[in-house]
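Need a sequence for this fold. Nothing fancy.
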């Protein structure tokens, strides 16, 4: 009996630590340690399997770098940009004016070649690929159901949801998105694919609709993963290959990137709702693409009208301050509570691509900030001060 227990213990230890593999449940557990937040944000490839996105057509953005002397008023105090970047545990800041890099700095061990993870900023890339599929004629209407494209979801409530409501985050499906609870639905959806190599698509089949689709905003990452499955089916290739083909190469991204997936190799399935990892300047270029209404080098890559539709409310419940304070939601893009036309992609821990069309400014600021949510109002104030300074208004 003792021998059996010893053998079982050794087998369990082998499974948990997997000394023969680059990835293991023990390594996944380390990723959830708050002390590792900076390392995880900058080195997702060392914690989780991934697939490469090559920079096949690099076309560096022009640079005219200059210091930013920024201060802003918040909560009755005058604060500096340096104070903000330090307090928010920022990893880097890139500012574009008229498509030119006018400011670029890196902090907390990051540098220009670092590829910080995007978290939910990746959702905005996924929406862009849906728009490209519409451009290519693969999708006739956003009112088509997900199961028309991704048959693995046929008969499920996610499968019977329209692309529009997946993009609007208005599926009505009960899914708990609680980042503080590792056993919530999003915690399990993130953890289990890496620990067990589980099929992420199959993990969503049993979730049920609790309210009518298209009636309320309920931000759930599972919606975006279903969209990624739609895209994989439409194009017949893995997500990282599609991103390289339709975004990285046409935009001339400066550096390689990668997308995390459940297992290594060709059988891996990307976590479609997060986990793109790229250079900060390439995230900024993505924002510039949207500032230019989806046109790059004179070629329209996104359908006419898409950017406007994606970056503003498509229903009253998406308006700013209705469901979420200070911000509203469009089609996988956020917008702040102002009338300046600003919009942004955002991710947990303070990942932002901020676009200010009125000033022709793009700001990419990525961080490893556990207090990112509580810092939302100050972040908006800091970004507006940066935009005003970069635009020469001060």
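Here you go.
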């Amino acid at each position: 009996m003792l021998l059996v227990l010893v053998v079982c213990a050794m087998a369990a230890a082998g499974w948990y630590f997997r000394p023969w593999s680059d990835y293991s449940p023990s390594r996944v557990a380390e990723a959830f340690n708050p002390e590792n937040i900076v390392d995880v944000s900058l080195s997702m490839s060392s914690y989780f399997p991934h697939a490469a996105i090559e920079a096949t057509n690099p076309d560096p953005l022009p640079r005219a770098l200059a210091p930013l002397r920024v201060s802003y008023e918040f909560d009755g105090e005058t604060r500096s940009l340096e104070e903000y970047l330090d307090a928010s545990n920022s990893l880097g800041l890139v500012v574009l004016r008229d498509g030119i890099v006018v400011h670029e700095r890196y902090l907390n061990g990051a540098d220009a070649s670092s590829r910080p993870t995007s978290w939910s900023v990746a959702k905005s890339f996924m929406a862009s690929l849906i728009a490209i599929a519409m451009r290519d004629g693969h999708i006739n209407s956003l009112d088509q159901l997900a199961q028309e494209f991704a048959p693995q979801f046929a008969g499920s409530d996610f499968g019977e949801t329209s692309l529009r409501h997946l993009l609007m985050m208005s599926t009505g499906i009960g899914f708990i998105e609680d980042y503080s609870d590792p056993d919530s639905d999003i915690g399990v959806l993130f953890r289990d694919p890496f620990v067990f190599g589980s099929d992420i698509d199959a993990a969503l089949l049993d979730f049920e609709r609790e309210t009518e689709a298209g009636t309320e905003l309920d931000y759930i990452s599972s919606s975006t993963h279903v969209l990624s499955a739609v895209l994989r089916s439409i194009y017949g290739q893995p997500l990282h290959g599609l991103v390289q083909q339709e975004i990285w190469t046409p935009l001339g991204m400066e550096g390689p990137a990668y997308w995390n997936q459940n297992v290594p190799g060709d059988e891996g399935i990307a976590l479609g709702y997060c986990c793109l990892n790229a250079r900060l300047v390439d995230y900024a270029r993505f924002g510039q693409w949207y500032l230019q209404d989806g046109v790059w080098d004179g070629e329209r890559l996104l359908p006419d009208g898409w950017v406007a539709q994606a970056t503003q409310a498509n229903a009253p419940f998406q308006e700013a301050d209705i469901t979420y304070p200070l911000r509203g939601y469009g089609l996988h893009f956020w917008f702040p509570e102002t009338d300046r036309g600003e919009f942004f992609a955002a991710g947990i821990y303070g990942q932002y691509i901020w676009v200010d069309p009125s000033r022709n400014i793009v700001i990419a600021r990525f961080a490893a900030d556990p207090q990112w949510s509580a810092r939302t109002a100050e972040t908006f104030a800091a970004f507006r001060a940066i935009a005003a300074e970069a635009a020469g208004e001060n």
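For context: The chain has a mean pLDDT of 94.
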